[in-house]
Amino acid sequence: xxxxxxxxxxxxxxxxxxxxxxxxxxxxxxxxxxxxxxxxxxxxxxxxxxxxxxxxxxxxxxxxxxxxxxxxxxxxxxxxxxxxxxxxxxxxxxxxxxxxxxxxxxxxxxxxxxxxxxxxxxxxxxxxxxxxxxxxxxxxxxxxxxxxxxxxxxxxxxxxxxxxxxxxxxxxxxxxxxxxxxxxxxxxxxxxxxxxxxxxxxxxxxxxxxxxxxxxxxxxxxxxxxxxxxxxxxxxxxxxxxxxxxxxxxxxxxxxxxxxxxxxxxxxxxxxxxxxxxxxxxxxxxxxxxxxxxxxxxxxxxxxxxxxxxxxxxxxxxxxxxxxxxxxxxxxxxxxxxxxxxxxxxxxxxxxxxxxxxxxxxxxxxxxxxxxxxxxxxxxxxxxxxxxxxxxxxxxxxxxxxxxxxxxxxxxxxxxxxxxxxxxxxxxxxxxxxxxxxxxxxxxxxxxxxxxxxxxxxxxxxxxxxxxxxxxxxxxxxxxxxxxxxxxxxxxxxxxxxxxxxxxxxxxxxxxxxxxxxxxxxxxxxxxxxxxxxxxxxxxxxxxxxxxxxxxxxxxxxxxxxxxxxxxxxxxxxxxxxxxxxxxxxxxxxxxxxxxxxxxxxxxxxxxxxxxxxxxxxxxxxxxxxxxxxxxxxxxxxxxxxxxxxxxxxxxxxxxxxxxxxxxxxxxxxxxxxxxxxxxxxxxxxxxxxxxxxxxxxxxxxxxxxxxxxxxxxxxxxxxxxxxxxxxxxxxxxxxxxxx
Length: 740
What we know:
single chain; 6-stranded mixed sheet; 34 strands; Translation initiation factor IF-2, mitochondrial; initiation factor
């Protein structure tokens, strides 16, 4: 019988006895008057009188339970129930798990309690077996998980055998991902589409100026430092009526990934090379991107209006990179242009249209939409926005799209001039509004049937990512366990010749200093760390900055920790992170409002805002330099040679003295000195005395003789060199080379 039920029954019986005793103490009239309607106070007052011993009588009854009458049957029942409850508790305390005969069925990651149950042992037995392992017993609980190697060891030490339990096969989850439609051979549904042309080339070779001339806008004047900071997609209407979609990619070295992304969605590459500079680093990289994507090239030799221009040299240099122009028997069209003056631009456009006609570019404008995210950003008023190229189908308002691990129901679409459009057929660049989150540049866009279907796709992709992450985590954990096991075995081998008492004593001494430390004291805080928060205007800019920071390889000088990165202006959350990690906020083409700046000044947080990427990296290098400890540089002031040695008596001690001649510079007693013997420095310190003849001297110049003694009782040898030097602290600079 449940012990709690017994106690409640006993309490009820006691209360019943108290009620009967109260009735016996009170006259029937007074009791009736007390409980009569509206007369309780009078009846009670009639019996006890106002303020008299009613409370005392009640307390006396309640405080003496032995006065309460108990019925014999009740008393016997209570005694019997109490006896049963006591026997039940005793049985429970003495209960042991049934002894397992034969093999113990084990599985991976069993808890201590589960293993004890499987072995038919109590938990203390498991703890005793774990004394012989490297596991910290103080951190274990009955529900703590044991790994398979420890489980096998416990079973074996207990004199038992083990067998692995049959694993329950996990039900395979159905793949609900969205995929591209199969390419059907239906010429009737294919319609001509505009070619997607990417302009590639080295930084500052005139790509943006060329595009600006082609679409008659002033993009180049808006770009910071004259360098395109992130990718842009534009539709250009030619005088002949054809349309060309241009992708303008940055030429700076930092934006290599963005150039590669541009060639993956393009049909034709226009390679811009400056006539006076020739082939440069990013020119070679652009050629490689085009080759990897299998995209044909058109060569645009820019700045031909300059006196030092040499187009023929450019064509010959490109031969070394397998870019053969038509005049040399190849298939690459070459056009000499001047983007600044607008010379031969129509010839370049006609060459592009002609190549597009040869490629016979067509697409299916029906069915579900397929496309690629070219760029993504976050707008204060519009929310997450993406610039995309539609490759199949026609995008309209209300379409449900998925890209990466986010989805959108298209609310609005805009062209390159910010004008709303109702539809976007294949080959047309468009800015999409309605995303739930910001997709990454380069993500594939697929249209799905409904919002419910979009959720299924996102759930599946999130699940796959979690599974991959879990797999990697397990690999890391297993590697750490293996390393820890090897260290433990090496430690045990060193103690193998000792008795168990000696081993225990040695381990206690080795870990004694850790036992009385607080957890906060055990962690070493490395102050030589630069924590940074990176914010950018668009996804591609942040990607380029992070790619540069990934090349940081000077952790031994100063650790670089990227605490957070994202898109959009500087926020209070960024300040909180910077304050927590003592970090610096770097913003690229973003702003910080006045309230944020004032709060940052109040908290002493640095906010560095830049519009040109190489200036941001230079600023970051300066910040790294400031975190490095200053280097001590020794500057030689004078040199002297020991010509003779002798000693003088000072008190009861004999002090060695060197007779020297100053060879270079001067000896200044205030400075530091070092003694060099056969090329080795055997002493550094200060002089205890410096004399010229018998007079104390502060400075001895070149060519003069002197006697000197050191602050340490050290014997001199003829031929020793005495160097007088000055120590100055110089700020170190990081050896990190970001590559530009």
